[in-house]
Write a structure and sequence with these properties.
By secondary structure, the protein is of the alpha/beta class. 29% of the residues lie in helices and 27% in strands. It is built from nine helices and 26 strands. The protein has a five-stranded parallel sheet, with helices on one face. The chain is globular, with a radius of gyration of 22 Å. The mean pLDDT is 95.
Length: 392
């Protein structure tokens, strides 16, 4: 009978949740918790700014998969785990609830790092912010074409580098090129500034890849302010920690992500990034009933911490799903072994991307096509999509 089945809670539904839903159908009472009835493919979302992709295209319909696999959906956020009691705390519009579990998969991702005045900037998440930013940027160009003298009207700032911030600047460049052609205002009259606190835009990859990305961004006329940190945003300004004050009517915040602070209060071991420390089976270390995957899991492979990029999270999902099933059945667990090399690709504007795989680095439209091809392959497993929407 269903009532005798163990309860498995999916605390957050990032990459891997749908794998768990499919694997556990009929084997457990599954409760899926997520703020929204969908998730967004973060690797595709930056292209909402340029309009290459639509909001509908980047969404994965979570609720449909939950219902198809006979699971229960609870909208809300997990804010605490009590491992000894095997319970967790859920906060939602209905209030605060305590739920019991037999097994738990933590997949809450990371949160955008806060900053003073963040209400004066468009943020990389949620995805709706990028749609709003696109509308605002188009309006700035149209106002400039009508002679609006507002200072900094065509100054566009992306605060935060890394792969995400760099891609965001690439999409911003494409949007500004489009608006330059539409309004007749030379693109050279606009300032595109990318501010990053590290010395290099993309860290953790080969030097050839890093240099290629920075070279392509500079080729677009973007100003890279490396080694400088944004302190706060104002209604019309960006303030840097070195005292610099920059007038800009458009400010986008992609200043890095951090593990949810509540993870460190649960009595579970955390790793260097504040995420849950997991073993080779993706179990939280010291726990027999809790697994964690994706950005909220710190996985040490050999002597290095696995980077927080989607290609690893996608591969972790099926392993975590099978291990949940094996825990229920009392079977030996399957170790997760990260792929030796990964395909990494950063779009940098004008249909150009820089890609790396196994030491090989290349740039151009072919890299963009390959990135979109992999996105299409992934998304078509989760919902009906037209391949034409992925190639531009």
């Amino acid at each position: 009978m269903r009532g005798s089945l163990p309860t498995v809670i999916l605390a957050g539904c990032g990459y891997g949740a749908i794998d768990a839903l499919r694997a556990l159908q009929g084997q457990a009472r599954v409760i899926a918790i997520n703020p929204c009835p969908y998730i967004v493919n973060s690797g595709m979302s930056t292209r909402l700014l340029s309009g290459r992709f639509s909001p509908e295209l980047v969404r994965i319909p979570l609720l449909e998969h939950i219902q198809a696999n006979d699971a229960q959906f609870l909208p809300g956020r997990v804010t605490h785990i009590q491992p000894e009691a095997q319970t967790l705390t859920l906060e939602s519009e209905a209030g605060i609830q305590t739920l019991a579990y037999d097994y738990l998969l933590v997949n809450v991702g990371r949160e955008l790092r806060p900053i003073d005045g963040i209400q004066h900037a468009f943020t990389i998440r949620p995805a709706e912010q990028l749609v709003a930013a696109r509308t605002w940027i188009r309006q700035c160009w149209q106002r400039a074409a009508q002679g609006d003298p507002t200072p900094g009207l065509l100054t566009f700032v992306v605060a935060g580098g890394g792969c995400t911030g760099t891609e965001l600047m690439g999409e911003l460049y494409d949007l500004c090129r489009e608006m330059s052609a539409e309004t007749g205002i030379p693109l050279a009259q606009a300032r595109l500034i990318l501010i990053h606190r590290q010395a290099h835009l993309v860290e953790g990859f080969s030097e050839r890849f890093r240099r290629a990305v920075e070279r392509e961004i500079r080729r677009s006329g973007v100003e890279i302010w490396a080694g400088r940190q944004v302190k706060a945003f104002g209604p019309e300004h960006v303030w840097l920690s070195d005292g610099t004050e920059l007038m800009a009517q458009t400010r986008l915040w992609a200043g890095g992500f951090q593990a949810p602070a509540w993870l460190s209060t649960c009595g579970l071991p955390t790793g260097p990034t504040g995420s849950l420390l997991v073993d080779q089976y993706l179990r939280v270390q010291g726990s027999e009933r809790i697994l964690a995957v994706g950005d909220c899991a710190d996985f040490v492979w050999g002597s290095r911490l696995l980077p927080k990029i989607g290609v690893y999270a996608v591969r972790q999902g099926p392993i975590a799903a099978q291990n949940l099933l094996r825990l229920i059945r009392g079977q030996p667990l399957i170790p997760y072994r990260p792929q030796a090399t990964v395909f990494v690709c950063v779009t940098v504007g004008n249909r150009v991307a820089v890609a790396e795989k196994g030491g090989l680095v290349w740039r151009g439209y072919a890299a963009t096509v390959l990135k979109n091809f992999f996105d299409w392959l992934y998304m078509r497993k989760l919902k009906p999509v037209r391949w034409q929407e992925f190639f531009y």
